[in-house]
Amino acid sequence: MNTTQVKAFGAEASDADLIAMNIQRREVTDKDVEIEILYCGVCHSDLHTVRNDWGGAKYPAVPGHEIVGKVIKVGSGVTKLKVGDLAGVGCMVDSCHTCESCKQDLEQYCLTGFTGTYNGVDKHIGGHTFGGYSEKVVVDEHFVLKIPSNLNLAAVAPLLCAGITTWSPLRHWKVGKDSKVAVIGLGGLGHMAIKLVKGLGAHVTLFSRTPDKEKDALELGADAVVISTDNNQMKSVKGKFDLIIDTVPYVHHVNPYVTTLNINGTLVLVGYLGGLEPILQTVPMIMGRKSVAGSVIGGIAETQEMLDFCGEHNIVSEIEIIKMQEINEAYERMLKSDVRYRFVIDMASLKA
C-alpha cells in the first residue's frame, strides 16, 4: 500500500520529550477519509501513553485522539462526508464490525478490541497507529464524525473524548429532567459532565475536596457544590443521587460517595483504571440496590448523537489553545491540574 510522509510530534521513548518527526500515513482507500487536522485536544491518556504509565506503549508514540479538521480527500465509496466538510476523529479508528458489541453500535466494547487512534495495531500499513499530533490523518469513514458548523472548532476537539466519556453513561442510565446527578472531580471530564447534565435539564451537584472549585462549578452550570471532606455536607446529601459520574483519575475512596446514592442509584467510574483502595463496602450497596459500575468512551453513533446535541445546545469545552511546540510544558502543567479545563493544540503551529 502506498504511503505519504507527514509532519508530526511524538516521543521516541518513555523518558523522552516529544519532538518533531515524520510519520507515514496510508493513501486513501475506497472507504477512507483524509482530514487536515486543524486542532487536537490534549488528554491525560496522551501523557500516560507517551510515558508508558500503563505499559504496552509503542514507540515512536504520536498521541492525540481529540481530532478536528477539514476533509481534504475521500475514497470512491465514501458517502458520509465530502471534501470541505468539518470532521472529527475520537479514540477509535477501527473495530471488527461483526461482534455482538459492534452490531449494537458499541464499538468501544468490541470483543476483539477496538483499534486505538494511536498505539493500536495498524491493519493497513503494519506497525502501530499514530494520533492527532500531526498534519493529517486517514480514517475509515465509519469512524469519522460530522462536526456541527455553529460551534467553535477548537473547543469541539475535547468533546471527542472528554465529552463522549461523560455523555455515554448519562444516556445509558437515562438521565432526564427529573434526575439528580453528581460529578466527582472538576477537570477535563468533570467540567464536560456538568455542561452535559445541564443540557439534559437535570439537577447537577459537584463533589469537590476543596472549596476553591465552587465558583467555577457554579459558573459552568452546577446547581450545588458539596465539599467531600466536610462530614456534615456529606451527610446532608445522603441517599440523594440517581447517578454519580466519578472522573477522578487516581486511587481514591469510593465508599463515602456510595452512601449519597439513592435506591437503585449508580456510581460510574470513568476516570480511573486499576484496583480500588480501600475495597468497596457492600452493606450500603445491598441495603439500597446500589451499583458501582464502569464506562469507557462511547460508540460512534452515540458520539455523533452527542455532537449533534452539543450543536443544538451550544455546548463546547473550556479550553486553552497552545502551540504544538509547547506540548512538553503543557504535560507538566496538566500533571499539576494547571489547565482550565483542556489544552487544545493549534496544528497550524506544526508548519512553523
Give a written overview of the molecule.
It is a single chain. By secondary structure, the protein is an alpha/beta fold. It has two domains: 192 residues, Medium-chain alcohol dehydrogenases, catalytic domain (Quinone Oxidoreductase, Chain A, domain 1, Alpha-Beta Complex); 133 residues, NAD(P)-binding Rossmann-like Domain (Rossmann fold, 3-Layer(aba) Sandwich), CATH 3.40.50.720. The protein has eleven helices and 17 strands. The strands form four sheets. Strands 3, 4, 5, 8, 9, 16 and 17 form a seven-stranded mixed sheet that branches. Strands 12-11-10-13-14-15 form a six-stranded parallel sheet, with helices on one face. Helix 4 crosses helix 5. The longest helix has 14 residues. The chain is globular and about 65 Å long. The mean pLDDT is 97.
Quick recap of the structure?
With 352 residues, the protein is α/β, with parallel strands linked by helices. The protein has helices at residues 44-50, 100-103, 153-156, 162-172, 188-199, 214-220, 231-236, 255-258, 283-286, 300-313, 327-335, and strands spanning 3-10, 19-26, 32-41, 67-74, 86-89, 92-94, 115-116, 136-140, 145-146, 180-184, 203-208, 224-227, 241-246, 261-269, 291-294, 319-323, 342-346.
